[in-house]
Amino acid sequence: MRSYKDVLRILIIRKQLALGWKIGFFIVCAALLIGSALLMRINVRSADFVGTVVSHGAEPTDEGHSAYLIVKLDNGETVRARPVGSLDYRPGERGIVRQITTNFFGLKKHEFKGYLDKPRDE
Questions:
Q1: Whether residues 34 and 78 fall in one domain
Q2: Rounded to whole angstroms, what are the CA distances from 11 to 8, 14, 15, 16, 18?
Q3: pLDDT digits (tens, 9 = 90+) for 67-88
Q4: 0.90 exceeded by the pTM?
């Protein structure tokens, strides 16, 4: 037979564990509620900028290579823009870059929409 102190110690430990699980469950539920509220407030804005194509490059990915263009915008900023469609590299020519910005962590993404002038006849 267990002593009164052993039984009391087991009951106290059981009560503390139950309280810990309740507090943990409350914290997880609060985090999910706050996270969903933040995700509902995400604003995605896009703006088009004009710039000059400086160079191109590619970085390796799991599927192969991801091509990009380096474009110097008219406002002085130099960005790395992924082309929409296939890569058409024409250094020194002017093109349109779409900047997509979110208010969630301030993420910015640049896409190269195309050139201002007509394509070269080759």
A1: no
A2: 5, 5, 6, 9, 11
A3: 899 999 999 999 999 988 888 8
A4: no
